[in-house]
Amino acid sequence: MGNWNELNESLIDLIGKTPVVRIRHLTGEDDAALYVKLESFNPNSNSKDRTAYGIIREAERCGQLKPGGTIFEITSGNTGIGLAAIGAALGYKVVIYMGSHYNKERFDLLRAFGAKVVPFDKDEVDVDQLKEKLIKLQQITPNSLFSNQAANPANPSIHRETTAKEILEQTGGKLDAFVATSGTGGTITGVGERLKEAIPGVTIHLVEPENSRVVEGGEHGDHRIYGISPPKRPEVLNTEILDGIIHISDEDAWQTARDMAQKEGLLVGPSSGAAVWGAIKVARELGKGKTVLALAPDTGERYLSIGLYDEAHYQDDESLAAAELSNL
Ligand code: PMP
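A: This is the predicted complex of the input protein with 4'-deoxy-4'-aminopyridoxal-5'-phosphate.
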């Protein structure tokens, strides 16, 4: 995985080894130290490069997939982008099924890497039925893979092997709590399981939208923290490792993402805002002397066109207006 001080042989070598940075302005003096792992430092600016690579590597290891083959996935974006980029580098055809309501940038990014994109209308297509069809399509297509990230054990495995290992090295095992969101559950499961094996007493906290409490068996609700809390609880999510579930509103997740930019200089997306917001609560509860780490899955740049930093959220400084200056 990524080495900055030597020659790397391919895109694969650039995945992982993401940095951890302390958040200094969103916590109080009596709070635990809060650190954030910035997955935006992956080649496609999010944690899903790891997942995509883990899934492809496992399929190659089992002999299911050889270069020249085809990879299918249904995704709202980040995993598809990872599969498309890695597919381009390793010589695979990548076919991504994606709800047509997603923003143009996501489609453009997939196409940039040469993936075939098949848009579908989310109100007309049942995703479970589409999944069944892709399982059949994979079976009749030689040398192919349906990556099926929410049910594929290679997804949590790669986070156990890489993300968790990095966190253990970066913290030296001095960590009291880990906070993350869950989409497929791959990250929190792989990281949480490994941290619990390695650090006695570490607690794992999941942040879920308050109106979509799927992990607890509640109803799915429409929310705007993209990439997390899908309609069904994913198969790979291990709820036994969870010590707590923190509920968050869309607004708090989005505002914390903006605060991360304004107060820490870090561009992160709404799911990162959610994880940081949850981690601030945990840091307050644990208090000074303890250490909390939140995982930030992606970058705020992916959300420019959907208004994360819209002018409505900012106030211009009238005293610096050009008209005022002309009076000087
Ligand atoms: N945030 C974003 C932006 C994501 O794309 C995802 C993955 N869908 C997650 C969080 C959650 O990661 P995981 O699937 O590993 O639970």
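Residues 80 and 133 are 18 Å apart (CA to CA). Residues 154-171 form the longest helix (18 residues).
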